[in-house]
């Protein structure tokens, strides 16, 4: 669904210039409202050049695009590509700015995004939180007028004002909104502005009830941690039964509120008041996870790492230990502690051979080998991942990295075949132009057959591609 206008008060589809089936270009001063499915909204501000292929992430080569993504279910993300860089999100609002096919800046208004170069020989990745930018030397953009306006509401212009509430729980729980069943978390709901009562419950846990105020055009995120009933003292259990209320004990509400304020000292004081004599292992592990979350919100990665490692090592059988181990691997990598990260990877695969994050951790093992310049071992690792059952999510990335390694080692035929295999991955391919160009390069340098066909394919698929000038000289 697309609506383009010179000003946001009127819409004229004739101003939309689709120079290719999947290409959108806007002149200076024009804007395009684009909705992808039900949970991704874009506002392109001209002049802009944006590629919108049906089976690939949006690719921005010129201009500014504002993006709003509702929180995504586990295992699913939204990606926008600029040059050789991916901007990966689970649910947030941000702006992407590009110039001549190169990413210039990412500006995060809410939530968190990951900016990554996943197919490069030596991977680079950085996480950006609300209020931060990728390039501090680029002037901060003012929020585009109308980005949160009524056009985005589900009923269109003139509909009743609404906002969105995203509800996440640990563990998975059933949700009631204003007394009506809303399904199992994660839940995304569009609600009329005003107060709404949110209740969540799961077997074996203390149910929670919370009131939220929904503002027009705004996204409200609730991240709730339920307390196991086994962690309650006898007096608390008796009080809960006699009152008939299903609310979270004050200590957890206080801790979570402190995390929201980024008051990590207060979280620590609360944790000190409820030491192991009041909480079982699972409850103490969850409290340490809240402390780690608070340190991350304050961008203190080293302190967060200490808490995650404590949970992973002291409470290996708790419900959150696996998550803590994965977070430790990520932070060790970001802090440049590759050897320690590799050791933690092996521990994860030993302790959680059927874990929820096996595919991610296996791929991280291969990336760490590349970072340490152990290219032979990395090649073996990527080949194993490529052929494994768990590798389906990142298999195209593994193939592309294998192709890059083969090209660096001047194994032209193997590299050309791997680039071709990558191109056959369909909807999972997001770097098709780069892969096809590199395949042409390998065919030419190796003096292999199929060069003319590859050049014709490139011309047909990417007539105005970034490498079109170079490809013309290959024939």
Q: Mean pLDDT, rounded to whole units?
A: 76
The termini sit apart by 40 Å
Q: Shape from CA axes?
A: globular
Q: What percentage of the residues does DSSP assign to strands (E)?
A: 25-35%
Number of helices: 14
Number of E-state strands: 19
User: What's the gyration radius in Å?
Assistant: 25 Å
Structural class: alpha+beta
Uncertain stretches of 5 or more adjacent residues: 1-21, 119-123, 148-160, 239-248
User: How can the largest sheet be summarized?
Assistant: 8 strands, antiparallel
Helical residue percent?
25-40%
Walk me through what this model shows.
This protein is an alpha+beta fold and 475 residues long. It is built from 14 helices and 19 strands. Strands 1, 2, 3, 4, 5, 6, 9 and 10 form an eight-stranded antiparallel sheet that branches. The model is unreliable at 1-21, 119-123, 148-160 and 239-248 (pLDDT under 50).
């Amino acid at each position: 669904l697309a609506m383009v206008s010179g000003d946001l008060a009127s819409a004229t589809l004739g101003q939309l210039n689709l120079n290719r089936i999947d290409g959108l270009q806007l002149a200076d001063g024009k804007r395009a409202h684009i909705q992808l499915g039900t949970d991704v909204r874009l506002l392109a501000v001209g002049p802009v050049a944006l590629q919108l292929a049906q089976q690939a992430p949006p690719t921005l080569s010129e201009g500014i695009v504002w993006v709003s993504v509702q929180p995504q279910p586990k295992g699913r993300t939204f990606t926008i590509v600029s040059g050789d860089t991916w901007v990966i999100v689970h649910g947030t609002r941000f702006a992407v700015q590009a110039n001549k096919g190169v990413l210039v800046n990412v500006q995060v208004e809410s939530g968190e995004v990951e900016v990554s170069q996943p197919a490069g020989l030596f991977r680079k990745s950085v996480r950006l939180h609300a209020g931060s930018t990728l390039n501090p030397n680029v002037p901060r953009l003012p929020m585009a007028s109308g980005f949160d306006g009524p056009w985005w509401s589900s009923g269109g212009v003139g509909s009743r004002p609404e906002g969105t509430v995203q509800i996440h729980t640990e563990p998975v729980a059933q949700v009631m909104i204003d007394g009506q069943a809303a399904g199992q978390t994660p839940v995304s709901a569009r609600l009329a502005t005003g107060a709404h009562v949110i209740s969540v419950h799961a077997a074996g846990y203390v149910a929670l009830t919370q009131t939220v105020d929904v503002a027009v055009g705004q996204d409200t995120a609730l991240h709730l941690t339920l307390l196991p009933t086994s962690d309650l003292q006898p007096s608390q259990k008796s009080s809960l039964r006699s009152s008939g209320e299903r609310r979270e004990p004050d200590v957890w509400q206080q801790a979570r509120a402190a995390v929201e304020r980024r008051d990590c000292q207060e979280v620590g004081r609360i944790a000190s008041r409820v030491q192991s004599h009041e909480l079982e292992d699972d409850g103490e592990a969850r409290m340490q996870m809240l402390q780690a979350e608070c340190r991350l919100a304050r961008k203190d990665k080293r302190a967060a790492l200490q808490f995650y490692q404590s949970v992973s090592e002291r409470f290996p059988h708790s419900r959150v230990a696996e998550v803590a181990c994965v977070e430790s691997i990520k932070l060790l990598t970001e802090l440049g502690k590759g050897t320690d990260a590799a050791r933690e990877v092996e521990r994860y695969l030993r302790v959680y051979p059927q874990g929820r994050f096996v595919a991610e951790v296996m791929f991280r093992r291969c990336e760490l080998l590349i970072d340490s310049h152990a290219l032979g071992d990395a090649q073996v690792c990527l080949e194993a991942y490529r052929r494994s059952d768990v590798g389906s999510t990142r298999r195209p990335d593994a193939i592309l990295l294998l192709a890059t390694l083969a090209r660096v080692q001047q194994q032209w035929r193997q590299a050309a075949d791997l680039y071709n295999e990558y191109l056959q991955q369909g909807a999972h391919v997001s770097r098709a132009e780069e892969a096809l160009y590199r395949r042409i390069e390998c065919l030419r340098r190796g003096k292999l057959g199929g060069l003319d066909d590859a050049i014709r394919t490139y011309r047909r698929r990417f007539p105005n591609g970034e490498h079109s000038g170079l490809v013309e000289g290959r024939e």
